[in-house]
Amino acid sequence: MSQGICAPEFARVREEFERNFAERGEVGASVCVTIDGESVVDLWGGLADQERGTPWERDTISVTFSASKGATALCLHVLAARGQVDLHAPVTAYWPEFGRTDITVGMVLSHQSGVTTIGETLPDGAFFDWSLMTKTLACQRPEWEPCSRHGYQALTFGWLAGELVRRVSGRSLGTFLRTEVAEPLGLDLWFGLPEREEPRVAPMIFPSGDAGEDQARFMILIGTEPESVPARIFLNSGGYMLPGPLGFDSRAAHAAEIGAAGLITNARGLAGLYAPLACGGELNGIRLVGKRELSRMRTTVVAGPDATLLHHTRFSYGFMRSTDNRHREPHLRDSMILSPDAFGHPGFGGGIGFASPANRMSFAYTMNGMGPGTLLNPRGQRLVDAVYRSLGYTDDSAEVWQ
């Protein structure tokens, strides 16, 4: 059922990966684990295109949604490591047209800016126009006073952080990622997918819209309260978050650089992104960041009720930390349970990439059959649990999925 490599000591990961297909509705997927930068698990299986019966191959790639944010945040941290960006400086120090002098770079990275929604109705295809989106966001009024609370910048994060990368480096977000991260490390990572790569992309399968007990409150409000923050985020996307010719599976969407949701890769590429971060910021002689940046990535800056996602979240500068909401709302699938040292980012539908420096381990899981919730669902969490068991951990999240 699965293809690829799996070291004997990580056999549990293969077992859970295959159970995802047999018992948990997996369609097509990939999972990768690295230790000291070397792959110990690199598996793939299922169907890349369910309608056509096309198998998921070794080089199949897909949209990773919010797992993209880790790549965008890393680009800013690379610039910070070079002394070109100060996280405590106002955004206007690098982007003078930005309308608020009281919002810092760090507030953007830690989801404290309040710039979570867009007031005016966006035209069709707006997400494909970087200039339009950054000009629009530059004059947005925050949903709350900056730094007074935190709330997930679900889609705005990519242009807020990405425009900082562009202003400072003089290169687009996608170009910076390719030249400074992907190409040096030999990774199949794309913001702005070239047309020649399009045949490798697995179409995404949207999760059920049923507001059952597995559905997150964020998703329920999209369909029931059109004036709510979740509805205004999700529905005012120029068609990007909806199935159709302007949606996330269109060629135009894949070609665009959408830093909050548009990274196209597979588990091998995403785990490769985090591998240097699991190994002190450097891998094979290629240094991305230093100790200061790694400390900022793995240190929680904000924690508690999230004004956007409507459950508890924990963020460092640009990355999500382990978040256990089981005791608050045990029926919801809005947890992401990792080791205390880990940092990374999940994506809509249940994919994830993260680094665990204490284990010099990176992990990624990507798929095309999207699941419920806003963080991890049983498929991804079971794979994460299997990795930690393989590393000798005994306290994991398994009971939440019973």
TrEMBL record:
Q: Name one Pfam family in it.
A: Beta-lactamase
* Membrane-crossing segments per the record: none
The Beta-lactamase-related domain is annotated at: 17-375
The UniProt entry's coiled-coil ranges are none
Q: Which residues form the signal peptide?
A: none
Q: Which InterPro entries match?
A: Beta-lactam-related, Beta-lactam/transpept-like, Beta-lactamase/esterase
Q: What is this protein called?
A: Beta-lactamase-related domain-containing protein
- Which species? Prauserella flavalba
